[in-house]
Design a protein that fits this description.
The protein has helices spanning about 50-55, 125-135, and strands spanning about 10-20, 25-40, 55-80, 90-110, 135-160, 165-175, 180-185, 205-210, 210-225. It is mainly β. The two termini are about 50 Å apart. Strand 1 (about 10-20) and strand 2 (about 25-40) form a beta hairpin. The strands form 2 sheets. It has a 7-stranded antiparallel beta sheet with strand order 1-2-3-4-5-6-9. Strands 7-8 form a two-stranded antiparallel sheet. The radius of gyration is 25 Å and the shape is elongated. It has one domain. It has 2 helices and 9 strands. The longest helix is centred in the middle third of the chain and has 8 residues, at about 125-135.
Length: about 220
Amino acid sequence: MPFDGARGVAAGAVVGYRLHRMVRAEVEYLMRTSDYSQSSGVRSSEGVNADKLSDELFLAQEWLGLVTSRTLMGNILLDLPGIAGRATPFVGLGAGVGRTKADYASVWSRNTDPAAIVTGRNQPNAEEIARNLAGTSSSGRNTMRDVQAAYQLLAGFDYPLADAVSVDLRIRWTVFDEFSGTFVWDPLRSHVPNVRRDGSEPVYAIMSTDDFSYVGLGLGLKYHF
């Protein structure tokens, strides 16, 4: 499903070590939160054919709320002294791991007309299936969590305020690997989300994304020792 981008806030801490006059290494912890609060209609989906989306389902919608990520990154930075007066520009790259959680919900409602139901049409009891499915709905909501590899490109500059204190302004582009999480449809087709009556086999759904990324601008205070 396509969702528009969202703004957010981030905060973190960095510990670094100078390896060379122009090269620094960092360990960085960053927490970022963005509030999407967006819904999007399903345009296509694996396992859902075009006939079902256009006729059988009169509502197929997903919702994305708060997305939070915590990343631990190792960065290598290259300083470029002497080209911007007292400021020292730098570029860098990093890699690490991120833990992301996302508030997600989905709702699917079927046409109330049994003639519009295409699920099970090739079954011997197709009419019974159509009557049972007509007018049913499925919905679910969960805060899903996943751990992904993360990568980033960095650029910015340091500006000295005192002998041991400087301001760090940096922009980053951070990319995360695919996110995947599960949730339970409750209700599922307007009944409890179980295959068996004793509840021993609940029905789970899986939501996954492609790689996703964000661009962030940060301002920090750095102490040199």
